[in-house]
Structures are given as C-alpha cells and as structure tokens.
C-alpha cells in the first residue's frame, strides 16, 4: 500500500486549474511497491514494473516479404529482361540447405528465410515463367527489394517497452513475438468506493418517493475496472459523519485509494468533509472545471482519498480528468492524457473565462464530409442521458468565452477517457 504523509496535498489559495491539479497528483502520490508476474495472455491493461528488453532480433532472420523469386543482387537484369533457371524452392518455416548459386533464381514464399548470398526478391506477379521453366525477370528492380533484414523491426538488447507502460494488445503481441510468456507488472491498485446521501438507494432495493437509485457507484466501478483496479464496494453511506468516519478508518487499511461520490461540497448535509478531517487531512480543491467544481482530495492514515461530485455527469468528468490521473500515478504508469481531435462546432455556446468546460456533443458529418460536433440539447450535470446519447466532450479552454458555429473546437471521445 502506498503510504502518504498527512500534508502531502497541503495547499490552499484560489481555485486551481485542471492542469495544475493533475500535475500535483502525479508529483505527490507514491507508486505502489509490490509487483507480480503475470502470464502474457492476461497482461493487457497492466503496468510494466520493469523495462522489457528484446532477447533476440525481430525478425530473427532475413526473410522474404513477398511470394516470388530470390536471387543474388549481382544477377539483377541490366536494361533488358533476363531469363534465369529456378534451382530451388523455399517455403516458410523451412531453412535453406545451400547458398544461392550465381545465375540462378530460387522460388520463395512470404516469411521464408533467404539463403546465403541472396539479397533481392521479385514479386511473383512481376515476372513470368517461359516454356522451359525459366523465370523471366524485368529490369528496374533495386538490390535489396522485398526483403526483411534480420533485426529490421527490433534489435537484440533493445528496450522495446519501458517500465510504466500500460500494456496494450499491440504491446502484448510484441512481447509474444520475442518469445516471452510472462511479464513483471505492478500489482493492481486497490480502490474502496462508496456513495453518500440519504436521497439515494441501491438498485434492487425499495425506493422511497423522494429517493433516487444510485448510479454513480456503478459507473465509477466500471471505469475503475477498465483501468485494471481491484475494487472494494462499500455501498451507500447515509449522511452521518460518525458513520462515514468509521467506514473510512476501516477502509484505509489495505487500500491505495478511497473514492467517494457525493457529499463533498459545502452544504449542511455534505458530511464527508467532517468525517475525513476527523480521520486525517482534507483539502478541498476548488478546481476550475465545469461540470465538477466540488472535488476533494486528502489523506486518511496514509491512504489517498478523492471525493467526486454527486451529479453523474460531474462525477464522470472529474473521474476522467482527476481520479484517472491519481490511479496512473499510484500504478507508476506514464500519464496518458486523452488525445483531442479538431472538429467543427455546430452549436453556439458562452462560458466564463478562467475555467475549463466540457460540453457533451454528438459527432456527425457535415455536407462537405467534415466531422462536426452537435451539442446535446439540454443542460444539467444530472442528465445521464446526455452521456448515453452523445459521443464525447468538447473541451473549452480557460481563455475561451464563446463558441460560434463553424469554429474549430477540440473533441474528446468517451473511449479515450476510460
């Protein structure tokens, strides 16, 4: 478990920018020390604990990139066609048993190793075979064509994946191509999660006339699962500071992060602040972000705590930009900022300067074929339908005060935020 000092997040002052908040998280959180070895088949999404060094070159031998005919570069045609006898046939998976002979071509197939002396391959569709069985080669091919040299992709001893890399399917494929069956990774980040509020009830339970079913906890657990976390569900806690404090005290043992939804603003019924302060240190972050300004972070007996807003859209946005950064920092993963894409706005919008805003949009193609972003027709950080019926968020920087149709804006796909 990553142990933090009670003052590791201690700061105050005016509302912080989102970039400053993410940078602070990355610099202050301690990477978990425990590692484990996992089979390559289940390594996707895990964070490498050590550099991956290639034990052999890729490809491990020089081979043909196409089906065709191999020959020595010295035997390439000059300015006219050249007919050559075919002396051998090499299939993929079989090693040649003799060198390439001068003045002779070799029938070869994709992936088959080139025999000693051969350094060029003609594609079979570029040649013809005459009545005597000789292959007729046209002029103009350069020496070394259609050949994959040994080590062209990866050199032996090269660091192919660095510690902190969050494994992707292509990374798993590279490790497999190098003959590896397992990799050393950081253990999964342990996160305890709960929702707060007398106004919410778990799905499947009886809902009172003034209550709502809890959706945030399930959304956040799904997002945590996509980040490879090991989650402990603490359920719903009522608006009782003493009860919340007891649960926090127990949860802090054996967890790397405690994640709460709701109860972190300044209302009388927002009891998380008092509960956390009674157990450790809590500094409310007045993060300059919309939706989602009420975000809290602190330390409870050495365990990091993050409190997200209760409104579902605000909870989604702040998890994607703040809690996600904290999880990467704890896992020792290189920070992976979401990649924005320029699109054309198909809406008007006004905002206050000095804060980052995220507008829910759907993508569509305009008449000229260019992607444009259409704003969800209703506002409100409590509208789950606005997340379900859109494709992502348009990110508006702190200096932006308005958007007009036709203006270029930056689009973040939901798939890049999980």
TrEMBL record:
SMART domains: MoCF_biosynth. It is an enzyme of class 2 (transferase). It comes from Mesorhizobium ventifaucium. It catalyses: adenylyl-molybdopterin + molybdate = Mo-molybdopterin + AMP + H(+). This is Molybdopterin molybdenumtransferase. It holds the Pfam family MoeA_N. Belongs to the MoeA family. Its EC number is 2.10.1.1. Its cofactor is Mg(2+). The keyword Electron transport does not apply.
């Amino acid at each position: 478990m990553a142990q933090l000092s009670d003052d590791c997040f201690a700061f105050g002052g005016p509302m912080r920018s989102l970039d400053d908040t993410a940078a602070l998280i990355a610099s202050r959180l301690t990477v978990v020390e425990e590692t484990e070895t996992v089979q390559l088949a289940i390594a996707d999404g895990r964070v490498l604990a050590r550099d991956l060094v290639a034990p052999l070159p890729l490809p491990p031998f020089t081979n043909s990139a196409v089906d065709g005919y191999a020959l020595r570069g010295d035997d390439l045609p000059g300015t006219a066609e050249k007919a050559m006898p075919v002396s051998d046939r090499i299939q993929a998976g079989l090693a040649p048993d003799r060198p390439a002979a001068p003045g002779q071509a070799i029938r070869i197939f994709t992936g088959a190793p080139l025999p000693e002396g051969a350094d060029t391959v003609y594609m079979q569709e570029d040649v013809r075979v005459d009545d005597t069985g000789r292959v007729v080669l046209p002029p103009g091919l350069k020496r070394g064509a259609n050949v994959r040299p040994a080590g062209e992709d990866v050199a032996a001893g090269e660091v192919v994946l660095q510690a902190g890399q969050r494994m992707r399917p292509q990374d798993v494929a590279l490790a497999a191509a190098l003959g590896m069956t397992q990799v050393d990774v950081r253990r999964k980040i342990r996160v305890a999660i709960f929702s707060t509020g007398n106004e919410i009830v778990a799905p499947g339970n009886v809902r009172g006339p003034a209550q709502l079913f809890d959706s945030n906890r399930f959304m956040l657990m799904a997002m945590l699962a996509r980040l490879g976390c090991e989650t402990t569900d603490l359920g719903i806690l009522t608006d009782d500071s003493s009860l919340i404090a007891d649960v926090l005290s127990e949860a802090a043992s054996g967890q790397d992060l405690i994640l709460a939804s709701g109860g972190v603003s300044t209302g009388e019924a927002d009891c998380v602040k008092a509960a956390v302060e009674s157990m450790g240190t809590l500094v409310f972050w007045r993060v300059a972000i919309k939706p989602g300004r009420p975000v809290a972070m602190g330390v409870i007996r050495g365990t990091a705590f993050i409190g997200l807003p209760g409104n579902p859209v605000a909870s989604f946005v702040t998890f994607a930009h703040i809690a996600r950064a904290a999880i990467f920092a704890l896992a020792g993963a290189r920070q992976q900022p979401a990649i924005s894409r320029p699109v054309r706005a198909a809406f008007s919008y006004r905002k206050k300067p000095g804060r980052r805003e995220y507008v829910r949009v759907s993508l569509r193609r305009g008449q000229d074929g260019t992607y444009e972003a259409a704003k969800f027709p209703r506002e409100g950080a409590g509208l789950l339908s606005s997340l379900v019926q859109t494709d992502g968020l348009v990110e508006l920087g702190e200096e932006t005060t308005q958007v007009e149709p036709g203006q270029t804006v930056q689009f973040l796909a939901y798939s890049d935020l999980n």
